[in-house]
C-alpha cells in the first residue's frame, strides 16, 4: 500500500485476499463493522483478523448474540485474548441450558460484560422514530400443501424415527422439504399444474400464504404504503415475481445473484420520490448487505433512523408445521439476547 495515509478502509473479502500485506503493519486501531461476522472463532475471517498486530480493537454490531453464549466468548476473545483465554471455561461458567433460569449467573455475566459493551438504541438516538409494530400471522395449509406435506412425512417416516448420524443428515433435508411445503407447493417439481403452464389464480389458492398476501397487498397499496417482502428462499421470490407480473405490481428484486451496480440502482429507484415501485422483494441473505443474517436483523434494517412512517411487520407462519418450531427456537435466541445484552445495563451509565 504505497503513499501516505492514516486510515485504511477495506472489505472482509480484501482482508482475506491480502492478509499477508495487512499483517506487515502495526495497527493503532482496528475497527470491525458487522462484527458478528467473526462470531465463529474457527472461521477463515475470524482467524485472519486475530493474527493482526493491533494496539486497540473495537467491534460494531447490532447483534452480538445470535445463537448461543459461546459466540459472545468469541467476540470477547478477539478484544482481549489475554483475559478471555479459554472457551471451555467460559462455556462451563455460562452454560446456555441452565443460564436462563439462574439469576445469579445472569448477574455475573452482566458484570463481566459491562466494562466492554456500550449499547445504543435507535429510540435513544432518534426520538421521532415510531416503534416497529410486529404481528405474527398464523396461516393454514392449502389442500395441495397438505398433500405434499403428508407425502414428505410418509415417504421418510423411518428417517424421522431414526437416531443415527446418517438419519440426522437426511432429517435436515426433510426439514428443508417441509419448509418448502410450508412456503409454496410449487417449490416442488411436478406440483404446478400443466402443461400448459399459466400464471393465474391457482398460484394463489394453492398456497395459504399467497391467499393472505393477495388480500393484504391491495389494502396496503390503497394506503400508499411501500412493501418489503423477505424470503429465505430465492425460488419463492421467483414465484412472487410471476405473481407481480400477473397482478401488474411494479417491483424491485434483490438477492445473492444481483450484481452490485444493479443492487444500488434498484434501491435508488425504490427510494426515489414519487417512485412507482410498490414492492421490493429481498432474500434474507442479500437483504442485509450481502451477508447471512438472522431474519429479525434483516427486518430491523427496514426500521431505520430517518424513517417517518411506522414500520409494520407481518410475519407469516404456517400453523401446525415445522415453521412453528423454527419460530419457537428463534424466540428462545431472542430471549437470550434480551437477558444478556438488553438487560445488562450497558447504557449511558458506562460512558
TrEMBL record:
Record-linked Pfam families: Helicase_C (PF00271), SNF2-rel_dom (PF00176)
A Gene Ontology molecular function term of the record: histone binding
InterPro entries registered for this protein in UniProt: Helicase_ATP-bd, Helicase_C-like, P-loop_NTPase, SNF2-like_sf, SNF2/RAD54-like_C, SNF2_N
Keyword Nuclease: no
UniProt keyword annotations, A-Z: Hydrolase, Nucleus
Keyword field contains Cell cycle: no
Membrane-spanning ranges: none
Gene3D superfamilies attached to this UniProt entry: P-loop containing nucleotide triphosphate hydrolases (3.40.50.300), Tandem AAA-ATPase domain (3.40.50.10810)
Domain Helicase C-terminal residue range list: 212-351
SMART domains: HELICc
Residues of the Helicase ATP-binding domain: 1-82
GO cellular component, one term: chromatin
UniProt-listed GO biological process terms: nucleosome organization
Location of this chain's protein in the cell: Nucleus
Signal peptide: none
PANTHER family attached to this UniProt entry: CHROMODOMAIN-HELICASE-DNA-BINDING PROTEIN 3-RELATED-RELATED, SWI_SNF-RELATED MATRIX-ASSOCIATED ACTIN-DEPENDENT REGULATOR OF CHROMATIN SUBFAMILY A MEMBER 5
Protein name stated in the entry: Uncharacterized protein
Source organism (scientific name): Timema tahoe
Amino acid at each position: 500500500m504505497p503513499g501516505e495515509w492514516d486510515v485504511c478502509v477495506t472489505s472482509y473479502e480484501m482482508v482475506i485476499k491480502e492478509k499477508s500485506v495487512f499483517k506487515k503493519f502495526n495497527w493503532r486501531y482496528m475497527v470491525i463493522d458487522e462484527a458478528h461476522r467473526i462470531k465463529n472463532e474457527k472461521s477463515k475471517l475470524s482467524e485472519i483478523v486475530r493474527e493482526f498486530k493491533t494496539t486497540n480493537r473495537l467491534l460494531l454490531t447490532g447483534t452480538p448474540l445470535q445463537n448461543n453464549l459461546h459466540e459472545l466468548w468469541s467476540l470477547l476473545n478477539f478484544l482481549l485474548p489475554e483475559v478471555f483465554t479459554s472457551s471451555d471455561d467460559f462455556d462451563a461458567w455460562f452454560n446456555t441450558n441452565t443460564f436462563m433460569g439462574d439469576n445469579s449467573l445472569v448477574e455475573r455475566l452482566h458484570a463481566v460484560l459491562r466494562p466492554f459493551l456500550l449499547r445504543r438504541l435507535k429510540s435513544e438516538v432518534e426520538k421521532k422514530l415510531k416503534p416497529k409494530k410486529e404481528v405474527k400471522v398464523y396461516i393454514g395449509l392449502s389442500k395441495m400443501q397438505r398433500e405434499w406435506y403428508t407425502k414428505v412425512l410418509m415417504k421418510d417416516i423411518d428417517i424421522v424415527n431414526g437416531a443415527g448420524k446418517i438419519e440426522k443428515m437426511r432429517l435436515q433435508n426433510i426439514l428443508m422439504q417441509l419448509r418448502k411445503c410450508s412456503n409454496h407447493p410449487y417449490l416442488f417439481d411436478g406440483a404446478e399444474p400443466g402443461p400448459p403452464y399459466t400464471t393465474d389464480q391457482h398460484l394463489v389458492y394453492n398456497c395459504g400464504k399467497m391467499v393472505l398476501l393477495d388480500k393484504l397487498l391491495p389494502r396496503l397499496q390503497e394506503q400508499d404504503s411501500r412493501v418489503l417482502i423477505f424470503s429465505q428462499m430465492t425460488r419463492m421470490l421467483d414465484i412472487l415475481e410471476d405473481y407481480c407480473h400477473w397482478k401488474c405490481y411494479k417491483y424491485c428484486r434483490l438477492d445473492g445473484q444481483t450484481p452490485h451496480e444493479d443492487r444500488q440502482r434498484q434501491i435508488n429507484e425504490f427510494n426515489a420520490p414519487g417512485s412507482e415501485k410498490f414492492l421490493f422483494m429481498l432474500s434474507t441473505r442479500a437483504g442485509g448487505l450481502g451477508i447471512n443474517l438472522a431474519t429479525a436483523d434483516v427486518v430491523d434494517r427496514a426500521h431505520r433512523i430517518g424513517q417517518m412512517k411506522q414500520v409494520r411487520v407481518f410475519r407469516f407462519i404456517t400453523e401446525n408445521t415445522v415453521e412453528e418450531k423454527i419460530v419457537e427456537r428463534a424466540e428462545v435466541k431472542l430471549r437470550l439476547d434480551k437477558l444478556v445484552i438488553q438487560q445488562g445495563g450497558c447504557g449511558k451509565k458506562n460512558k
